[in-house]
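Shipment paperwork, digital attachment
Item: protein structure file
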Amino acid sequence: MKSGSNVIRYVGIAEAADKVRHADRILVVGCSGGGKSTLSQKIARRFGLVYLSIDRDVLWLPGWVQRERGEQRRIIEKLILQDRWVMDGTNSSTFDIRVPRSDIVIWVRMPRLVCVWGILSRAAKHWGRTRPDMAPGCPEKVDWEFFRFVWTWEQKFAQRVLAGLAEHAGEKPVLMLKSRREMRELLDLVGARA
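Attachment content:
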């Protein structure tokens, strides 16, 4: 399901808000701590979409054990068949099946320090408990490996996201949010700020 164009069709916040208001399936990607889960859940509530979390529904088993990649893909293949959803999660290795099924892609591309602050404040809020967008049996924690993952995310993974979107998005609109202000503006425009 390749687009062939290899050009990403970026849209502004106003156009993206219009697309979100009429979308049945929205894919939200980005680094941990950037706010993609919060954004996804607010949009899901506002428009009555099913909220799907890669972390909660696909990737993790209790005790922070990752599912086998083949099983992850089979789960995603089933989830994307649903009629109406917001899916929160980046894993670019499944862009070939998730991006074409989406009506719009929102890339929450926050600065590194915003993401670090996000994971630290989230950890303080949920420490030792499992947050709602995480798989059961995975209590909140921040270890050195996860901190390093977030700190180096832009260097290691942004190019994969760009390549995956260029290959699979075709004419689909892609909104890149680079600040909390832009995120608030989008939520205001779609009436999901609460």
